[in-house]
Amino acid sequence: MPFIGCPNAVLLSRDCSNCPKRRCSENLAYCTGSPDAYNRGMYIRPITVNKNGKRHGYWALVESYRTPRGPRQRVVSYLGQAEASVRCGMRQQASGQPYQRMLFEDTEPSWVEVDTQGIRVERCLEFGGPWLGLALLKRLGLTDLFERLIPLGREAVPWPLMAMVLVIARLCDASSELHIAEHFYKDSALCDLLGIGQARINDDRLYRALDRLLPHKEALECHLKGRLGELFDLNYDLLLYDVTSTYFEGQALGNSLARRGYSRDHRPDCKQVCIGLVVSKCGMPLGYELFAGNRHDSTTVEEIVERMERRYGKADRIWVMDRGMISQDNIELLKQDGRRYIIGTPKSMLKRFEAQLLSEDWDTVHEGLEVKCCPSPDGRETFILCRSEDRRKKEQAMHDRFEKRIEEGLRKIEASCDYRKQDPVAVAKRVGRLLGQNSRAAGLFRTDVVKDAGGAARLVWHKVAAWRNWATLSEGCYMLRTNITDWSGQELWQAYIQLTEAEAAFRIHKSDLKIRPVWHHKTERVQAHILVCFLAYVLWKTLAQMCKAAGLGDEPRRVFGDLAKIRVVDVVLPTRSGRSIRRRCVTAPNDHQAILLQRLGLNLPKNLPLTKPS
After folding, report:
1. Are 19 and 104 within one domain?
2. Could you tell me if 574 and 119 are in contact, meaning their C-beta atoms sit under 8 angstroms apart?
3. Helix, strand, or coil (residue 538)
4. Inter-residue contact 133 to 176 (CB < 8 Å)
5. pLDDT per position as a tens digit, 320-364
6. Which residue, of 440, 474, 508, is where some domain finishes?
7. Residue of 185, 233, 403, 449 with fewest CB within 10 Å of its CB?
8. In the beta sheet, which residues pair with residue 480?
9. Residue 238's domain spans which residues?
10. Together in a domain, 336 and 422
11. Contact in structure between 141 and 134 (CB atoms under 8 Å)
12. Mean of the pLDDT values across residues 592-612?
């Protein structure tokens, strides 16, 4: 009988579940060698078993059969150990089937004469980044989850594979869908890793893949929360919540979320959308929600708290938020049902604790930082005063800079009034504009515009000593409030300072993953675009945790950049017989890359099968 079978079953795994062709009904001959044998192909497969510390090789006759979820395999007969003569006979029998010859890589080598002058390298593609991204997707179980969540239809390319393309492209070379189709996919080895031909990737198919992925946002978030907890032993007891914004290019007239509001990107000329992100204390994302661009941060708290608790439960949760989230309604919400919180407070509340700021009984957290706990009158809350030397120097420099600007400006206005007659209203506007542009030190000055006997404006101003005294006392100070009464001031401060993880997440989204600007205008496409960025950020943080566990520090950007330099090339060897031998080889890692791979527990393949993607 002819030896027919799926080469990827041997080269990629020991069954067809990882075969990139398993969903493609248009390539029957590819997996079986014959369309008629597709539903019941048989082939010889080597099996390796370790017994008593020794490695033994066996052979088995394996049948490939088709199921609704793709090709599967079962052993028809175990052939045992084959002697050299038997292996030679099987090899000769399989010589007519090119894919079966791949089964005999461990047999004696065949030597041919090669024309060294004609050796050439072709098809050099980026391999390290896409390969690492695919490995991270598999580690998180997202490849299988995509297949379970996104239903299969009559599409030429399965939507789960297209979702992988979107996420990996966002991680490796964040850009538009058009750039992915025209440049990134053609220059990377994703076509070999996923088995999708370059001609099948276009921007229209990528857009439709966004639409297929979006409905499963909540299921993806729930899966990732559990999977990340298992992989890295995460405890989601401390939830950090912060809000940022990203802006649109264009009017986005059909998008209800596109509104003008406070822009963190300093683009008030553009419409924007707000993103509320919840992360763990180590920065692992738990979930996110989108809000209209004109929503104030404090109005999003109730919605995000209720959604997270409905999805993951409310037991043993401590919410950490900055002062932009505080309002009396939010305080009452967080006090309900035993919720615990640590939140920042407005600077103005420090005035109530002037006496405590003047006292000397501070606890040192580390050099340059002191804290002091002040229970509320009813004993239900604790206010934590914090004093930072670095922050004091920064605020003092800011006050000095703005004070100098205001003083110079007032002297110029005063001199202009002496030089010529001016309208008092116009002078008052100039003064108001000057103070508004330098509001940090505006309270230090008292100004008055008066008329002289001739009706000309005169500017009178002086500095307020009380304001300067309070500024000197409060520089570098800020305050937190919490209903946790059994923690020390140092523990409360350390929990609050973890909010920098949420801020770091936003920086990665905006710099490395290029979540801004948003070029999509439809509401659903915008939501799907941000979902892909969120999934790419999960891969980023997964690599960061792997680096941390491997003792490689906290620089996933550098590790990813080093491994992304690995390439895959086709080596062509012309022989004396006139035929050319082609091998698709992965470039050997240098010493530094080899150490990274070994520390991360990743096995880089030496070559890839010479198969033509569908």
Report:
1. yes
2. yes
3. helix
4. no
5. 999 999 899 999 999 888 899 999 999 889 999 999 999 888 999
6. 474
7. 233
8. 344, 384
9. 234-346+487-521
10. no
11. no
12. 91
Give 523's contacts (C-beta < 8 A, 6+ positions apart).
Answer: 254, 255, 256, 257
491 and 466, same structural domain? no
Domain membership flag for residue 167: no
Q: What is the DSSP string of 582-598?
A: EEEEEPPP-HHHHHHHH
Going by C-alpha positions, the residue among 494, 482, 475 that lies closest to residue 347 is 475
- Dmax over CA atoms of the chain, in Å, equals 122
- Continuous segment of H or E residues that includes residue 238: strand 238-247
Q: What is the pTM of this model?
A: 0.79
Neighbours of 316 (CB within 10 A): 11
**pLDDT tens for residues 21-41?**
443 333 323 333 333 333 446
The CA radius of gyration of the chain, in Å to the nearest whole number, is: 33
- CATH number, position 272: 3.30.420.10
**How much is the pLDDT for 109?**
57
* Residue whose tokens read 């500095």: 463
β-bridge mates for residue 600, sequence order: none
| Burial readout 136-153 (b: 16 or more C-beta within 10 A, e: otherwise) | bbebbbbbebbbebbeee
SS3 content of the chain, % helix, strand, coil (to 5): 45, 25, 30
Strand order across the beta sheet in which 70-80 lies: 40-51, 54-67, 70-80
Q: Do 502 and 431 have their domain in common?
A: no
pLDDT value of position 152: 84
Domain boundary among 110, 129, 156: 110
| Terminal-to-terminal C-alpha distance of the chain | 28
Amino acid 286 reads L
Residues with Cβ within 8 Å of residue 473, at least 6 apart in sequence? 354, 357, 358
Q: Which two tokens stand for residue 339?
A: 């919720």
Same domain for 240 and 338? yes
Return the structure tokens found at 608. Answer: 């890839």
Instruction: Give yes or no: residues 403 and 492 share one domain.
Output: no
**With left for phi above 0 and alpha for psi between -120 and 50, is residue 583 left, alpha or beta?**
beta
Q: pLDDT tens digits, residue range 280-320?
A: 999 999 999 999 999 999 999 999 999 999 999 887 789 99
Q: For 542-590, how does the pLDDT look when each residue is reduced to its tens digit (9 = 90+)?
A: 999 999 999 998 889 999 999 999 999 999 999 988 889 999 999 999 9
User: Three-state SS for 20?
Assistant: coil
